[in-house]
Structure formats: C-alpha cells, structure tokens
Write a structure and sequence with these properties.
CATH class: Alpha Beta
Number of domains: 1
Strand content: 5-15%
Number of strands: 7
Order of helices and strands: HEHEHEHEHEHHEHEH
Distance between the termini: 24 Å
Strand order of the largest sheet: 3-4-5-6-7
Helix content: 40-55%
CATH superfamily: Divalent-metal-dependent TIM barrel enzymes
Largest sheet: 5 strands, parallel
Shape: globular
Oligomer: single chain
Length: 245
C-alpha cells in the first residue's frame, strides 16, 4: 500500500522496485489527492503493477449531516472512477465511526444504508465493494448487519485491526470467510493501530496464515507497512509463512 503522506507516483515506483505484484492504491490527501488520472495511468503502464482500490478510513459515509454524507459518497464515487480507469476490480470502504457517540444501532443502520448505495456506485464501475473491519467497529455483531445490507459486498479482513482490543480473527473468519475478498497484514501490540512490520508486535503470524488458508482463500494480500525496508522484509516473511503452511 502506498503511504498517503508521500508523493503517490514515487510510492508506486518504489513498490514496483521492491518486487510487489500490485499496489493497494489509497487515494487520499496529502500525497495521493487530488487525482491525476493521466499520470497514474502512465506510471502503472510503466511498472506493470496491478491495482486494488482503497479509500480513506475517515470518509463520513454515514454522517448524520445529509450534506456531509452526500459529499463523502461523491468522493468515494470519484475514487471509483479512477480505480476503474486503472483496471482495478475491487475497492474498499471503512465503516464510518465519526458518529460513534450516537446509539450503536443508529451507527450500524447508517453504515448499512451506505453499503447499499456504495455497492451500486462500485458495481456501475465494474468494481466489487469490500467492507474493512476496524478496531472500534470490527466485531461480528457490528459488521454483520452492514455486510448483509447488500450481498454484493465482500469482506476485507484487516488482520492488524482484528487484533485490537481482543483477538477477533477466528470469529470474523467463521462468520465472513466465505465472503473474504482481500486481506491487509500489519502488526501491533493489541491496543494501538501501529502498522508495525510483521513480527515486530504480538500477532502470531503462522496462526493467522493457518486461519486464512483454512477458509480456502488464496487471493491478494497487502503489506500495510509504510517504512520501505520493513515493507519488503514483511513481504518476505509473509511468503515464507504462507508457503510453509
């Protein structure tokens, strides 16, 4: 995944140079927004990398302000336009937790409403929408009603987020393993979302690999680590664990 605080074209070239097969392309400020479609097309043609679409975690897609909600969904649609042009087939979205002080049922209902609209926006651009689990919105009870709002929505597993505030990975895969569409990996100590290199925190990665493989999944996995040497080292470790399982 490109670091959104770095110039996006530099990030894409570095990811290519380090031997990755695709970019989990996040289009967000300050380094990757506004979008320059021509420059992005050129760099992806130059590198030959694939693309998985990623949108900012702070889009208020379920805001109680109708105007803010509409603006966030329009920004999502503009990102989808770019992903479609670049040949992506998937795009993620995060649950909106800006309204977390509201009753939980209302927060869930607002996110479910967003899934119905955004799944249609994505499908119109030949993209599959994926919902990513967060630490503060990441239990089966939180996610199930939102995923069930539209059966086109896939489950985007973020392993680091699943380790925050208790180990949720087994329950998430049991509930949504048949809808697993993409995976993010990064490490932490169970309390803060640190995006550490694999092996630098407390996550048991061989157990993670066994759990993910147990669903039958063999698709894209993103190293969501932003320091370049550690990003490449994490990829090597992941491949070792995956091939040894």
């Amino acid at each position: 995944m490109n670091n959104p605080f770095a110039p996006v074209l530099d990030e894409i070239r570095a990811i290519s140079d380090d031997g990755f097969e695709f970019v989990d392309l996040t289009l967000e400020p300050p380094g990757a927004w506004p979008v320059d479609p021509d420059a992005l097309r050129d760099v992806f043609s130059e590198t030959g990398l694939g693309v998985v679409g990623h949108t900012a975690f702070f889009l208020p897609i379920a805001s109680p302000y109708p105007e803010l909600r509409a603006a966030a969904r329009e920004l999502f649609a503009r990102s989808c336009d770019a992903f479609h042009e670049l040949g992506a087939d998937r795009v993620n979205v995060h649950p909106d937790t800006v309204t977390r002080t509201y009753p939980r049922a209302e927060v869930i209902a607002g996110n479910a409403d967003a899934m119905r609209e955004l799944a249609e926006v994505a499908a119109a651009r030949e993209l599959r929408l994926m919902l990513e689990n967060l630490g503060q919105f990441g239990s089966v009870e939180d996610l199930a009603p939102v995923l069930d709002a539209d059966d086109r929505v896939g489950f985007h597993l973020d392993v680091g987020h699943a380790h925050l505030g208790g180990e949720r990975l087994p329950a998430l895969l049991e509930a949504f393993g048949d809808r697993l569409a993409h995976v993010h990996v990064h490490d932490n100590f169970g309390s803060d979302d640190l995006h550490l290199p694999l092996g630098a925190g407390r996550i048991s990665w061989p157990d993670v690999v066994d759990a993910v493989r147990g669903t039958g999944y063999d698709g894209t996995v993103t190293i969501e680590v932003f320091a370049r040497p550690y990003r490449a080292a994490s990829a090597r470790l992941w491949r070792e664990w995956w091939n040894a399982a």
